[in-house]
Amino acid sequence: MKEFIDYLLQFGNLNTHQIDLIKGKAKVIYIQKDEYFSEAGKIPKQVGFILEGVVRFLYYNNKGKEITQYFIDENNFVSDQQRFEAQVVASEYIQAVTDCKLLVFSKKDWDEIGNTIVGWHHITELIVKNCLLKTIERRSPLVSEDATSRYNSFIEQFPGLVNRVPLSHIASYLGITQQSFSRIRKNIR
């Protein structure tokens, strides 16, 4: 819980009563590897903060091929925020890549925090902007770089993930086949 509160305090001030309210609404859940935190075709039910583990956002293209959009690891929020807030059906999946431990908030509890804590919406806006900037920074090189450079960028941005995430997911994220990915890794070693 300390990691979560420390994370929030980067984006705004909270007093002891506000922190106690947030702690009272948080629930710890465990998601096994390959289970979904959120599924396409369903309304996202919760917003989470990863205490342990890695998740990925993915979708299926028009050929039925699984595409990994990005990864999120410890001490970061995870949610399909836009669809969670609007309570509309998700178009992508959020899947545990490893066993995960998360702090989660239901829509009701999240709204109650927002309606009770003055300035909460400002804090969450800053968090969402921060998450979007990180996503853009991580995805932008994937458009303009060659496959080897993309892999090197991945290692730089996610140094701890290479040994925690299946190589097939990394290849999908990089937009290359597993065979090409194997060649690139072999040439870099």
UniProtKB/TrEMBL annotation:
<feature type="domain" description="Cyclic nucleotide-binding">
    <location>
        <begin position="30"/>
        <end position="113"/>
    </location>
</feature>
<protein>
    <submittedName>
        <fullName>Cyclic nucleotide-binding domain-containing protein</fullName>
    </submittedName>
</protein>
<dbReference type="InterPro" id="IPR000595">
    <property type="entry name" value="cNMP-bd_dom"/>
</dbReference>
<dbReference type="InterPro" id="IPR014710">
    <property type="entry name" value="RmlC-like_jellyroll"/>
</dbReference>
<dbReference type="Pfam" id="PF00027">
    <property type="entry name" value="cNMP_binding"/>
</dbReference>
<dbReference type="InterPro" id="IPR018490">
    <property type="entry name" value="cNMP-bd_dom_sf"/>
</dbReference>
